[in-house]
Amino acid sequence: MISRVGVGIIGFGTVGTGVAKILLQNAALISRRVGVPIEIVRIADLDVTRDRGLTLPPGLLTTDAKQILTDPSIDIVVELIGGCDIAKRIILESIAAGKHVVTANKALLALHGEEIFAAASRTGVDLGFEASVGGGIPVIQALREGLAANTIQSIYGIINGTANYILSRMTHEGQSFETVLDEAKQAGYAEADPTFDVAGIDSAHKLAILVALAYGTSVNFKDVYTEGITHITPLDIAYAKEFGCTIKLLGIAKLVGNEVEARVHPTMLPSSSPIAQVEGVYNAIQLVGDAVGDVVLYGRGAGSMPTGSAVVSDVIAIARNLLKGAVGRVPPASFHQDQRRPLRMRPMEEISSLYYLRFMVLDRPGVLSQIAGELGRCGISISSVLQQGRREGQTVPVVIKTHTATERDVQTALRAINRMAFISEPTTLIRVEGKDE
Question: Between vectors from CA 159 to CA 152 and to CA 156, what angle results, nearest 5°?
């Protein structure tokens, strides 16, 4: 008879502190929900002297992670150090030792998830990673259990709070990307090196995980098209408003026949849509199932306590399984390993979308007709045109919104147009989600 469940935490930074705080402060509540106490046996970190604002029982801290991996009283290892190499080794060694694992490491799962999923299934241990996508939003559980009856037709996600904070500020205040990014760093909403956030890489890591769970297929991270927000300007945001749209950095996945689209890029979407109204550092994920229809999950996508909440939810789920002898009840990757199927990841040039195109041109007669002519030659139909004011001989914006077109045709047209003498800078392209009118 199990009288308590032992936990070892490796990594005592922002999230690790949140996890420890929740397990200690909510210990009585968690014990009532599980049936036995969940106890922190050991916490490993390179720095065991820094004040985390948390009073720990004596003897918990160590600088040696091996004490956690080899301690038979520890049932669940919580990996929160980040990165790939050391974290991967810790997780695989924990699994090999028969310990259950909880991690928040989205980059590791996006790059090496298949190896880790297979190891957990082979060894018969549970693997929890709720905190890897969406912070405190329970989207992993939604895909693995709540929506298990559905074919997931599409996923639309704001899954990076830093990028959403920057775009929200740009939208409401009309400031440039560079200005808002500097202020976001000062406010602590952006890292000193924000590349992963603003280049879309963090969102792509998370989208790769969601695709693997939703469609029961392995995902090569390199197949996820990734584009960031660094080229978005207040001018584009202003034009988006004229079209009744808002620009967000979205992770988008769609099931198209037996193929999957997976892409991260700035997207114009109707300002009335639920996702468009998500502001600041908040995340939101819209899942569309064939039976359930639209489901929107919204909440804090990062932070010590929201992410800690997701980690502890996995610890509780595994503890419940241990008590009932039901380990492995839910496969790590949602589908049983022998039931997962390779699906073709549709290359970006094959996707279809509506497009916003902003051309910076020398204002002279015949410019619009030449642009329209090249678009027409590539089979691209124009939905609307915005051209404000005449300034003959000066550079002015010409904005075109297209009907549905394929990426390959649009890129072919832009290569030709960008070589035209009257084009003063490379054309800005933003994909548009919504109904073709």
Answer: 30
Number of CB atoms found within 10 A of residue 375's CB: 23
Sorted by sequence, the CB contacts under 8 Å of residue 133 that are 6+ apart come out as 106, 139, 140, 159, 206, 209, 210, 285
CA distance 80 to 307: 11
Task: Please report the beta strands in 302-436, taking only residues with DSSP state E, as ranges in sequence order.
Answer: 344-345, 352-362, 382-387, 395-402, 405-406, 428-432
- Distance, CA of 344 to CA of 322 (rounded, Å): 37
Find the DSSP H helices in 150-268.
161-173, 177-187, 195-198, 201-215, 234-242
**382 bridge partner residues:** 402
* CA distance linking residue 46 with residue 272, whole number of Å: 48
User: 25: part of which helix (H) or strand (E)?
Assistant: helix 14-25
Is residue 24 within a helix (H) or strand (E), and if so which, with residue range? helix 14-25
Nearest to 1 by CA among 35, 30, 32: 35
- The two structure tokens encoding residue 358: 């902003």
- Block residue for tokens 């027409």: 376
Which residues have CB under 8 Å from 152's CB, separation 6+?
143, 214, 215, 255, 287, 288, 289
Residues recognised as catalytic: 206
Cα dist from 425 to 170, 174, 396, 414, whole Å: 22, 22, 11, 12
Sheet holding 127-128, edge to edge: 61-62, 38-44, 5-10, 76-79, 100-103, 127-128
Distance from C-alpha of 246 to C-alpha of 34, rounded to nearest angstrom: 44
Those residues whose C-beta lies under 8 Å from the C-beta of residue 147, and which sit 6 or more positions away, are 287, 289, 292, 295
Helix (H) or strand (E) holding 418: helix 407-418
Q: What is the pTM of this model?
A: 0.96
pLDDT of 192-243, one tens digit each? 899 999 999 999 999 999 999 999 999 999 999 999 999 999 999 999 999 9
Give pLDDT tens digits for 7-23.
999 999 999 999 999 99
